[in-house]
Amino acid sequence: MTAPALAPGTRDDSARAPAAPGGARAALHGRSTGSRVAVAVVLAATLLWTLVPLVWMVLGSFKSQADVTSAVPRLVFAPTFENYRNLFTGANDLTPYLWHSVVAAVVSALLSVVVGTLAGYGLSRSVMRHKDRLSFWIISTRMAPIAAVILPLFLMFRVAGLIDTLPGLVLAYMTFNLPFAIWLMSAFFSEVPPSIEESALVAGCTRWQAFRHVILPLSKAGLVTTFVLCLVFSWNDYAFATVFAGPDSQTLPIAASQLVTQTGIDWGQLTAIGTIVVLPMVVAGLAVRRWLVTGLTLGAVTGE
Amino acid sequence: MTAAEPTARAGRRRGLTFPGLLLTPGVALLAVLSVLPFLALVAMSLSRVRLLGGVRLEWVGLDNWVRVLTDVDMWWSWVRTGAYLVLTLGIEMVLGLAVALALHRVLRGRGILLSLVLLPMFVAPVIVGLLGRYLTDSTFGLYAWFLQQLGWEGDVLGSPGTAFAAVVLMDVWEWTPLITLIALAGLTSVNPSLLEAAALDGAGYWAGLRHVVLPSISGILLVALLIRAMDAVRYYDIISVTTNGGPADATKTIPIRLFENAFRFFDLGYAAAIGLMMLLLTIAIARAFVRLLGTRGIS
């Protein structure tokens, strides 16, 4: 964009760009009708593929038993709140499961962020000989196959009496959230130039004060992103909960999967649980969209 | 470790530096959560694990390993897992890049479009699986109904070929957005003047894509691929709630087999050997990932 004389009107005056079908202008920001149609088709197909299942789930949650399992799909139906009402009343009231999900996800995310922030700052600022090995160990802990972690934890939890307890579930979630938080916060802190805390030290701050009052406020986005992603990972967990959760610590994903095995499948209730599980995570995830790339690539790629 | 740290600068000379001090609790906790389980996993893979009447490990040497390595069914599971990885990752990379290229050309409303496209990533994998079952149910599923209108009758999750395709597509639905997100970040960082230059040279769209765009985002795409690969080895939720390995073992990938051995047959030693093999695989991928970060000068 520094040479406007060479490239007039390539970016912003889309309406007035000379129609040059298939011409030189076509490279990636091309404006030919053909390429516009292609882009529109790709995006329309993508949106259909992406949204139809979600819309169908939300619609299903407001359908009566007959509508949700009608042989011919029904777009027009009399909406009912019956499914949601059934989920929170009667013998299989979901409220305790909702509570377990919230506690396990929030507590493990909070603990991971607090410990991970301290350690991440330490990791980003420390000068030590085998730092790369330490980093590698941390990331490989995060990426370890869930199945390989669950087996030994199952034995250890059995010995320690942590099976079917919320603290057990929180600890289990920290096996993947803590290394994630350490690594990601370290990546966010590395973006903050060390000269900033150096000048704070010169101004008379202690190292702790420089960290607490200067660096931490600069890393708010990183903190929130790390928290949200930890929350999503643990809220959405199924594998750990199937093994470690019992009646006293059952979470929503397990409750959802159990609707399947008990005497047929009540799809109205199932789509309702699905909606309840998905909605908060969508809101939380989109709230940090700007930093999602950084978060989900563990700091390898920075966006926007 | 709170504000009572006025002598921190002096502390630097006393051994543990301030960063080291902050690092310690996290690393110690992580060690408990990962080194101990790892050692336990190794021990389990060399033992017969008894659960009744208190947890006991009975040493059996390499017995579990011999059984894992000589079981033909296990090898088929590895092949199936490989096919699953190649298919899901391949489709996700191609589709994800295509959607990113399309989104990159939208100048107005790109934000809202991207948000919509990203939605599946936040859906719990169990819900993806259950939703997949609902959509493909042969009597009332929406997608099954579409297939019937197109002349295909049958139970999607009931026959081996379509069941495998279905679990692959469910993974594709959930994780293609991640590739789109990462590829789009890469495209945005490509110097626009590079594209202008290519355009002035008379390079067509595909030539520009191949010679200018792809080379400049190849590093980022590789990061996306490796992250997705490690996660694909991790997750097993979708298959577990849709087919749980069936029909006729068509979707019995390694993680499914591990869970089945551990928590249905309670052969935990055998499962531990499988777990260690999976761990080796992910560590190899993670090593490539970290090396890549190193060469890119990040972290």
Defining traits:
heterodimer; A: 304 residues; mainly alpha; MetI-like fold; B: 299 residues; two-stranded antiparallel ribbon; globular; transport (chain B); Sugar ABC transporter permease (chain B); cell membrane (chain B)
User: Quick check: average pLDDT of chain B?
Assistant: 87
Q: Per CATH, what is the topology of the largest domain in chain A? A: MetI-like fold
**Mean of residue pLDDT values of chain A:** 85
Beta-strand percentage of chain B? Answer: under 5%
Q: How would you sum up the major sheet of chain A?
A: none
Q: Could you say which overall geometry of chain A the principal axes of the C-alpha atoms support? A: globular
Question: How many strands, which pairing sense, and closed or not: the largest β-sheet of chain B?
Answer: 2 strands, antiparallel
CATH superfamily of the largest domain in chain A, please?
MetI-like
Radius of gyration computed on alpha carbons of chain A? 25 Å
Give the CATH H-level superfamily of the domain at 71-266 in chain B: MetI-like
CATH architecture descriptor of the domain at 71-266 in chain B: Orthogonal Bundle
Rounded to the nearest angstrom, the radius of gyration of chain B is 24 Å
Query: So how many helices of chain A?
Result: 14
Series of H and E elements of chain A: HHHHHHHHHHHHHH
Shape of chain B: globular
What is the chains' assembly state?
heterodimer
Query: What is the count of helical runs of chain B?
Result: 13
